[in-house]
Amino acid sequence: MNQFIDRGRLCWDVEAACQSCGVGWCEGFGSDETPEDIRAALLAEHGPSRLHVAGPVPSLVPVLKVLREVWKVSLPRARELAGDLTSTGLAGTLAEMEFLAIQLRSRGVTAEVRPGD
Question: What is the CATH number of domain 2-115?
Answer without folding.
Answer: 3.30.1390
